Amino acid sequence: MNDKAKTRAGECPHAYGCALFPILRASSAMEYWTQAYCTGDYGRCARFETLSKGLAVPPNLLPNGKKI
Ligand code: SF4
Questions:
Q1: What is the pLDDT of residue 8?
Q2: Hey, CA dihedral for 30, 67, 56, 42, is it positive or negative?
Q3: How much is the average pLDDT of 13-39?
């Protein structure tokens, strides 16, 4: 099954291939990130952009392009 097959309507197409998504979704403290990116405007997510190019996503890359 590919990533898109499990993705809900309005959700980032890479949600289930993104290592960060389950972490963000599991915590109410991270709700900003999921709403602003994963279930919102995922097209502006740095991880989405990288995944869409078929490149490996650095594990410490945040949706806003900053690294932790
Ligand atoms: S962090 Fe980015 S790539 Fe990952 S699920 Fe959210 S919007 Fe998609």
A1: 87
A2: positive
A3: 95
58 assigned to some structural domain: no
- Is residue 61 within 6 Å of ligand 1 at its C-beta? no
| Ligand 1 contact, 57 CB (< 6 A) | no
Cβ atoms 30, 24 nearer than 8 A: yes
Query: What's the domain count of the chain?
Result: 1
Secondary structure (3-state) at 41 = coil
Domain assignment of residue 19, yes or no: yes
What pTM was computed for the model? 0.89
Both structure tokens of 58: 């650095």
**Ligand 1 center to residue 5 CA distance, Å?**
16
